Amino acid sequence: MLATKTLSVMGNLLAFDETALRGISIAVAGMLIVMLALILISLFIAASPRILAAVAKVYPEPVERHRKRTESKDRDGGEEAVLAAIGFVLHTEFQKQCASEDGPSARDG
């Protein structure tokens, strides 16, 4: 009886060791895979300026052919005043609309 229990305990310890070894090997393999991926990402980031320089030789940036914007003579300040007045009226009307939706209790108190 004692010998059977001893073998049973030893068998459980051996099974635990085998399971632990599998778990450790899986964990180490996973960490190596993640480390390899991080190294590859770091190498790609470090090499990206050289890669982009090579790509720029094949596909150069287009030269801007737009005319430079000149100050318009029509913009003397009258247009800005009109825009400010429109904004003021819109703001005032919006405030009136919000006050009417709140009802008389908002005005009383």
Question: Could you characterize what this model shows?
Answer:
The structure is a single chain. This protein is mainly α and 109 residues long. The protein has one domain. It has 3 helices and no strands. The longest helix has 57 residues. It is flat. The model has no long low-confidence stretch (mean pLDDT 81). It comes from Stieleria maiorica. This is Oxaloacetate decarboxylase, gamma chain. Pfam families: OAD_gamma. One of its GO terms (biological process) is sodium ion export across plasma membrane.
Reported for the largest beta sheet, the result is: none
Average pLDDT figure: 81
Order of helices and strands: HHH
Morphology: flat
Class based on secondary structure composition and strand pairing: mainly alpha
Task: Report the portion of residues in β strands.
Answer: under 5%
The beta-strand count equals 0
DSSP helix fraction: over 70%
The domain count comes to: 1
CA radius of gyration is 38 Å
Question: Low-confidence parts, pLDDT < 50 over ≥5 residues?
Answer: none
Which terms summarize this structure?
about 110 residues; mainly alpha; 3 helices; about 0% strand; flat; Na_pump_deCOase; sodium ion transmembrane transporter activity; Oxaloacetate decarboxylase, gamma chain; transmembrane
